[in-house]
Design a protein that fits this description.
- With about 300 residues, this protein is of the alpha/beta class.
- The chain folds into two domains: about 5-115 and about 230-295, 3-Layer(aba) Sandwich (D-Maltodextrin-Binding Protein, domain 2), CATH 3.40.190; about 120-220, Periplasmic binding protein-like II (D-Maltodextrin-Binding Protein, domain 2, 3-Layer(aba) Sandwich), CATH 3.40.190.
- The protein has ten helices and twelve strands.
- The protein has helices spanning about 5-15, 50-60, 75-80, 95-105, 145-155, 190-195, 205-210, 245-255, 260-270, 280-295, and strands at about 20-25, 40-45, 65-70, 90-95, 110-115, 120, 135-140, 185, 200-205, 220, 235-240, 275.
- The strands form three sheets. It has a seven-stranded mixed beta sheet, sandwiched between helices. Strands 9-6-10 form a three-stranded antiparallel beta sheet.
- About 45% of the residues are buried.
- It is a lipid-anchor.
Length: about 300
């Protein structure tokens, strides 16, 4: 199944219409308690994307001025949040947040969901997985993508996991080779487009798809955003536990899910981003399950 088919099928149920590198306010408005706009300090690694510009505009219409704190690397953001340098963040998946909570002993929480970026299997000059049996598939070797890549192949019926293997965070060692139709080789994510160009099947994440100029619609298989196996890869809004019921932050989640931001997100991702609407209770249940796996 191609990514564009997966997105079309998922859209009906999912789409809604350590330190700082730089800290700069996108507006000059300050917080107010008399009905004027309220300023929220939000951290992200994606501030240069069109979706964030639209997000800031739409938030302002809703009475919220975003003070966007720009980070250059993922590992900087959660510690800044834990130390109170930002109020809320939007940059990470549930899986990434779970790893941070498990290793740091912190308990950052999720106040709402954003999008999931569909991950696909690509095979040059093929439009299906027919004939792929016996092939060696290149997958990213980083912890954030390796387990998910394996699960893409599990969902496609190409890999079988050993009994007792972790369902959400499998590694190559968890694969039942005798029961599987393909083999995997874990490589640096930057090398997956090279494998594709050499004629080998490869799981390629969206950043490297764009850099390599590979059309996302040409995938021969992809994960299903509705699947439980994809849940760890939902991008989320993160807050401290004390702010879990903050109505202003909940309003920001609604703004992100707006048609205007969704359209910009679709443009940024070349059509691979699908908005997900899940309750904060569901999202935090997923988070807690993953934290236990990582401990």
């Amino acid at each position: 199944m191609r990514i564009n088919r997966v997105i079309a099928a998922a859209a009906a149920s999912l789409i809604a219409a350590t330190g700082l590198v730089a800290c700069s306010s996108e507006t000059e408005t300050t917080s107010s308690s008399n009905g004027d706009a309220v300023t929220v300090k939000i951290g992200t690694t994606d501030a240069d994307q069109k979706a964030w510009s639209v997000f800031a505009d739409e938030a302002q219409k809703a009475g919220i001025d975003l003070d966007i704190v720009r980070f250059s690397e993922y590992p900087q953001v959660n510690p800044a949040q834990s130390e109170g340098q930002i109020e809320i963040s939007k940059f990470q998946t549930i899986n990434y947040q779970a790893q941070y909570n498990a290793t740091s002993g912190k308990d950052l929480r999720i106040i709402g969901s954003g999008e999931i970026n569909v991950l696909g299997l690509y095979w040059k000059d093929h439009d299906s997985i027919d004939g792929i049996e016996g092939e060696e598939v290149a997958i990213p070797n980083d912890p954030s993508n390796q387990g998910r890549a394996i699960n893409v192949l599990v969902q496609a019926g190409l890999l079988t996991l050993r009994d007792g293997a972790p369902t959400l965070t499998p590694t190559p060692a968890d694969i039942d080779k005798d029961a599987s139709k393909v083999k995997v080789v874990a490589v640096d994510a930057s090398q997956t487009p090279n494998a594709y160009n050499e004629g080998r099947p490869a799981i390629i994440n969206n950043n490297w798809l764009q850099r390599a100029g590979i059309d996302p619609s040409t995938s021969v298989a992809a994960d299903d955003p509705n699947s439980e196996l994809a849940e760890p890869y939902i991008n989320v809004f993160t807050v401290s536990g004390d702010d879990l019921d903050n109505q202003t932050y909940e309003k920001l989640v609604d703004v992100w899910q707006s048609p205007e931001v969704t359209a910009a997100l679709d443009e940024d991702s070349n059509g691979t981003a699908v908005q997900v609407q899940r309750s904060k209770e569901e999202l935090n249940e997923i988070l807690d399950r993953l934290v236990e796996e990582y401990k």
